[in-house]
Amino acid sequence: MKRLLTLALLSLTCAFAAESPRRVLFVAGAKSHDRDIHEFPRGAELLAEAVNRSGLPLAAEVSLGWPQSDAAVAQADLVVLYSDGLEAHVAKGHAGALRQRLNAGKPLAVLHFAVEPPADDAALRDVFRDAIGGYFEAGWSVNPMWMLKAAPAPGHPVARGVGALAIEDEWYFHLRFREGARGLQTLLAALPPAEVVAEDGPRSGNPAVRAALARGEPQVVAWTCLNENGARGFGFTGGHAHRHWYDDNFRRLVLNGLAWAAGLDVPAAGVPLVSPSAPFFASIDEAIARGDTADVKRHLARTPALARGAAGAKLTPLHQAILRKKPDLVALLLDAGADANAPDASNRTPLHMAVERADAALVKTLLARQADTTKRDRTGWTPLHHAAAKNQVEIARLLLDGGANPNLLSELGGTPLHEAAAGASAEMVQLLLARGTNPDIRSKPGVTALDLAREYKNAAAVEILEKLKK
């Protein structure tokens, strides 16, 4: 019996593997807003990659703008529209091709602004009503920015593996759904705050939407549609800001919706997710500044040489991470090949910077990666000179334990003890002396540490250093 069961499972696995992938065509409109907003090409590419890496029998591609031939649209198993609406709608003038798909029982998915057909394209409006069950209607629907906090309705396959969302986006609502909501099923709905509905306007507010909110009617922002001829539809009004595609719940809800629309059985845990390979932030420096570890990893995976920094840059990514006190990113960059001794424009090494930031943990990390304690910055100081001058006893001890030479001279010939004598504590002076500093060394101007202690009236240092003369 066990052998028969194993053979049956192997047979099912082979059959699934042999299944021809269903073709998903993303038709993306042009980017139309500032960075992060309405980045339809980037968003479509990200979703297509997620589909192709999901392990499901789906093969996605992206068309920037409507394909040159309607044949590509006709042949796709699922078409996904993601673009501006109105006059810039990517499907404007192509209702006929979408109607043919619908008549053939083929599915359609429409995302964000694309749910609003051009005002003068009644044919496209009717296709949306019949294919996905509804659309955005000016004077009835609204599109404010608001924080949606909700979980998808349980029970529908598209809700599988999707947790609660907390996303501030331009969520369109109070849509014009077909009479009786035939074949429609709500996936995601919430009650928007009344204040997000502004004064009356084509997309800002109207008496009907205000009355609906006053009645406490949750507003649908994601839904599915199952038509009488078997054609499936999926609508989703989020997707205004590109950054939300990096949210796992947000992305999985849409991927589940696309898999369902394509006619697949959505896995019990939802469509398998992989982290997008495309970085969100334009540069690794910005990703570091935001503390986005995942995005730093994306930059490094795409361009490994970034770990060492760009030629001619004032600061390497490692310097950036140290300046912003991001220890996890420091370790990540070092593991990726960052040079622990690379100088910046002021000849400061990462170790110099860690001392400047008074960050003992980072100093320890850098020393463990063979950071050189002998390097001098533009002022001619080693990291130990800086630690001594700033009375950073713990850091000075780490540097000395890491091999720092307490008698190494600065450009002006002074030892770290000279810098400590000017204003550091007795503990710092005693530490340097205990580690072998020669108090009799004279700097280039000819002064000893005791001379400086007397000049700067550092009584504690004077007392310790004078006793050595007796």
SS field, number of helical segments: 19
Look at the structure and give the CATH class of the largest domain: Alpha Beta
CATH fold node name of the largest domain: Rossmann fold
Main beta sheet: 7 strands, mixed
Strand order of the largest sheet: 2-1-3-4-11-10-9
Total separate domains: 2
Strand tally: 11
The fourth-level CATH homologous superfamily of the largest domain is: Class I glutamine amidotransferase (GATase) domain
Instruction: Give the overall silhouette.
Output: elongated
| Proportion of helical residues | 25-40%
What gyration radius follows from the Cα positions, in whole Å?
Answer: 32 Å
**CATH architecture classification of the largest domain:** 3-Layer(aba) Sandwich
Q: What is the average per-residue confidence, as pLDDT, rounded to a whole number?
A: 93
Distance between the termini: 96 Å
What can you see in these coordinates?
With 470 residues, this protein is an alpha/beta fold. It folds into 2 domains: 18-261, 3-Layer(aba) Sandwich (Rossmann fold); 378-470, Alpha Horseshoe (Serine Threonine Protein Phosphatase 5, Tetratricopeptide repeat). It is built from 19 helices and 11 strands. The strands form 3 sheets. It has a 7-stranded mixed β-sheet. The protein has a two-stranded antiparallel sheet with strand order 5-8. The chain has a two-stranded antiparallel sheet with strand order 6-7. It is elongated and about 105 Å long. Mean pLDDT is 93; it is low at 1-17.
